[in-house]
Amino acid sequence: MPSFVRTLLARHEPVRNVSEHAKSALGAIIAIFAIGELAALTALPLLLAPLGATAVILFGYPGGALAQPVNVFGGYLLATVVGVATAVVFPGQWWMAAPAVGLTLFGMQTLRITHPPAGAIPVLALEMPGDSATLFVTLLVGCLGMLVLAVIVHRLPPRRVYPAPHPGLPVQTPVTDDEKAKH
User: Fold this and answer.
1) Is the sign of the CA dihedral 11, 17, 19, 20 positive or negative?
2) Phi/psi at 165 (5° precision)
3) Is residue 101 part of a domain?
4) The domain containing residue 143 runs over which residues?
5) What is the CA radius of gyration of the chain?
6) 106 in a domain, yes or no?
7) What pLDDT, on the 0 to 100 scale, is given for residue 71?
8) What is the largest CA-CA distance in the chain?
9) Residues of the chain with pLDDT under 70
10) Which residues contact 171 (CB under 8 A, 6 or more apart)?
């Protein structure tokens, strides 16, 4: 097999225990089900496609920078502001989705709050003009609900640290019996 093809087919994800995958899947199922149920009860359009991608990141890769609460909230907030502003200034202009997504990416990277699913929000904002308040509420409820659920799910066995500790702070590790005996 040519090396280029091997490079294309190489998997970069670490091998994990199947129980971790099952827990990730269960977290995503519960999150999307809860948002869908809330949407049915409130008649708000809460079940947006980008939230499915957020569930994959939050429950499947909680240690990554893209899954951290500031990235989820900040990315969606920035994308919503850019998307709604674009829809208000350029109503019905589908082609403005391209610069709006580019501006959103630029802003997220510059502010270090990148959350890839948020890149879809300017497209949604342009497709649902006039619903800017609804878009803000929808994403606030969806993000908050998923983040709370992620904190709970990742505390269940097999445990994973979520949210990740601040990179400048020391990570707290449990003290072993041997270390206790030394002091």
Assistant:
1) negative
2) -65, 155
3) yes
4) 18-164
5) 20
6) yes
7) 97
8) 70
9) 129-130, 168-183
10) 165
How many folded domains does the chain comprise? Answer: 1
Q: How many residues does the chain have?
A: 183
Distance CA 47, CA 147 (A): 15
* Residue 143: burial class (beta carbons within 10 Å; 0-12, 13-18, 19+): buried
Residue for token pair 């989820």: 72
d(CA 171, CA 62): 16
Residue 119 counted as domain residue: yes
Instruction: Indicate the Cα dihedral angle 73, 74, 75, 79, nearest 10°.
Output: 100
Single pTM value for the model: 0.86
In the Cβ-directed half-sphere of 116, how many Cα atoms lie within 13 Å? 11
- What is the reported pLDDT for 14? 81
Angstrom distance (rounded) from CA 67 to CA 160: 13
Contact predicate 67/57, CB 8 Å: yes
Question: 């659920």: which residue's tokens?
Answer: 149
Cα dist from 132 to 18, 54, 80, 126, 128, whole Å? 41, 20, 8, 10, 8
Q: State the amino acid at position 30 in one-letter form.
A: I
Q: How far apart are CA 122 and CA 85, in angstroms?
A: 9
- The tokens describing 22, both together, are 């099952």
